[in-house]
Write a structure and sequence with these properties.
Largest sheet: 7 strands, mixed
Shape: globular
Strand content: 5-15%
Number of domains: 2
CATH class of the largest domain: Alpha Beta
Order of helices and strands: HHEHEHEHEHEHEEHHHEHEHEEHEH
Bound molecules: pyridoxal-5'-phosphate
CATH architecture of the largest domain: 3-Layer(aba) Sandwich
Mean pLDDT: 96
Length: 382
């Protein structure tokens, strides 16, 4: 697909607006109708059909940001994942999933797929060989998450896209951590791009939403299942999400810059054992990250030196919030073992390299000096 000849901030601010033909307001009017006339219209509009005026407009913005033909907006990231996978797969299909992935998605697969007779396996690593060795005759889809949560592992998008084409498989990626500002997977041959819009697209910790984008053919297939599952987003929230996305590039670029500075600072700190950030030269996948990412993102993880209490560290923070989720304008920190990866259980976590003391940090837009000062006083309190 040909990229729109507009800069990223221009796409964020302008693409996919509903024109206010009545009053000429500068922003999209909000259409809350659940009943539209269909007499003489080419579309039968109904919110659950993902075709209300505000949904259609915002989908255009998302598609433009991901360089895709079409997109759909959902009520959460998990609604986007579940609707897309159930739309693309059927009984007897097999899917290859990566070794580490978002805990909720992992839980969906292991709990729900068996009910539908969909087979799956997880890789033992992130190399081409790790993915290739899991592919079977009935493999229909290869699923990726890069950078991965919470260890920021990087998968080579171009390499997986090639592998999938050789085996006639669809590729789908959870692109939440990178955001469309830092990574556009379809440019490397990936078919379907998912975002938890609860994160960078919303960006203010006040919206739950998800998006899927891809070719018109794939989106039509996902749409025909999604209208049965009904996971669309309320138009009011669609409208709020459009407002949030106007500033997404400004926010994400700032958050990525802060994260890089903080990662470098943490790496030198004597109380820190290890830092996981794809923008550090010490990251094992730095070269691949540099090839496929425009920026390295606002997320990082780190481990304190042995014997230091990571919970006490988080409780000692004043500015950085010890709270769930990520990607808001405020910096937040959490323990994956206590939250996103709790359901995996201690054994599976250990296998995936997620230690109980691992901390995941989401960089906000604050001044980096203020964040670093807060982290430093929390270290000093240990
Ligand atoms: C939050 C998140 C999801 C799920 O999104 P929800 O909006 O919470 O349903 C999926 N993948 C990643 C990487 C996430 O961070």
């Amino acid at each position: 697909m040909k990229r729109l000849n507009l800069g990223i901030n221009t796409i964020c601010a302008h693409v996919g607006e509903v024109e206010d033909t009545q009053f000429k307001g500068a922003i999209s009017p909000l259409f809350m109708a659940t009943s539209y006339s269909y007499d003489g219209m080419d579309t039968k509009r109904y919110p659950r059909c993902f075709n209300s005026p505000n949904q259609e407009a915002l989908a255009k913005k998302v598609a433009a940001l991901e360089n895709c033909e079409a997109a759909m907006i959902f009520g959460s990231g998990m609604a986007a994942i579940s609707h897309a996978l159930l739309g693309l797969l059927q009984q007897g299909d097999h899917v290859v999933f990566p070794e580490t992935m978002y805990g909720g998605a992992y839980n969906f697969i292991v709990k729900e797929f068996p009910k539908y007779g969909i087979e799956f396996s997880f890789t033992q690593g992130f190399s081409k060989e790790h993915f290739r060795s899991e592919i079977k005759a009935n493999t229909k889809l290869i699923y990726l998450e890069t950078p991965s949560n919470p260890l920021m592992k990087i998968t080579d998008l171009e390499m997986i896209a090639h592998l999938a084409k050789e085996h006639d498989c669809i590729t789908m990626i959870d692109n939440t951590f990178a955001s469309p500002i830092n990574q556009n997977p379809t440019d490397f041959g990936i078919d379907i791009v998912m975002h938890s819009a609860t994160k960078y697209m919303g960006g203010h910790s006040d919206i739950s939403a998800g998006t899927i984008s891809g070719s018109q053919v794939h989106m039509d297939q996902i749409w025909s299942t999604s209208i049965n599952l009904g996971g669309h987003l309320s138009d009011y929230t669609v409208w709020l999400l459009e407002r949030s996305m106007k500033t997404m590039a400004l926010r994400v670029k700032r958050q990525s810059k802060n994260a890089k500075k903080i990662a470098k600072w943490l790496e030198k700190h004597e109380q820190v054992a290890k830092v996981y950030y794809p923008g550090l030269k010490s990251h094992p996948d730095y070269a691949i990250a540099k090839k496929q990412m425009k920026g390295f993102g606002g997320m990082l993880s780190f481990e304190l030196k042995e014997g230091l209490d990571s919970i006490a560290f988080m409780r000692a923070l004043h500015l950085v919030k010890y709270s769930l989720s990520l990607a808001g304008v405020e910096s937040t920190i959490l323990s994956p073992a206590e939250t996103s990866h709790f359901l995996l259980g201690p054994e599976e976590r250990k296998k995936q390299g997620i230690s109980d003391g691992l901390l995941r940090f989401s960089s906000g837009i604050e001044e980096k000096e203020d964040i670093i000062a807060d982290l430093e006083q929390a270290f000093a309190s240990l």
